[in-house]
Amino acid sequence: MLDFIEILKVIFLGIVEGITEWLPISSTGHMILVDEFIRMNVSQDFKDMFFVVIQLGAILAVVLLFWGKMWPFQVKDRTKPLVRMETISMWMKVVVACIPGAVVTILFDDWIEAHLHTPVVIAAMLVLFGIAFILVENWNKTRTPTTLTLEDITYQTAFLIGLFQVLSIIPGTSRSGATIVGALIIGVSRVAAAEFTFFLAVPVMFGLSLLKLLKFGFVFTGEELMTLVIGSVVAFVVSVLVIKFLMGYIKKHDFKVFGWYRIVLGIVILGYFALR
Predict the structure, then answer these.
(1) Where are the domains of the chain?
(2) How many whole angstroms separate alpha carbon 99 and alpha carbon 145?
């Protein structure tokens, strides 16, 4: 059985995951940094797997909130087709957007995990993409989005967003941050960019979780299984609240506040590890 202190650590990590997975501030970066101060009493292999698989809880929150848009079948209205082709089309675009990231992850995931999962890299990427958010939002003040809704996203746009998502393999970048910055640059509205990011997260995070589970194996101790379950459930509950907040927030505000947060956090991290 997990002791009380370990349960509190897992709950805290689940809260961090639920908040940072959907805000463009890097969930993996935050999880690695929090681990510097709140270390779980588990093996390094399990911890590396846990930091990814806990995202399944966050993904279930997306599925719950966007089920009506994500599920391509309907049976209630017999006057309409059983299969909603616009939803099928959207999932095909998601597949196209996933291709660049899948290739890079398969080829370089182990190397990046071994060499780039460091506080300095995380801090640098926090600052770099924080600056990018501010610059892109300032630039967008003089531009009108050409892609206003999720349905307006084309296969070409989806592929370009997928290329930007490749950058998120570097810890501290943020998967949602990379895709949103890329979408804004190519003329997608904030709401459409966020919604496509949610769609894109489903296969990406399921795929990454499966990859980590295959590497770790499917045999867990009772404590390890409890750790995964508690972390995922907490991440799910917090994610539901954060997604609702974000979708309401971006209808009236831009992403610059997240850019400033990233810059301040990155500088603090660099200063901390420089003086430690």
Answers:
(1) 4-275
(2) 25
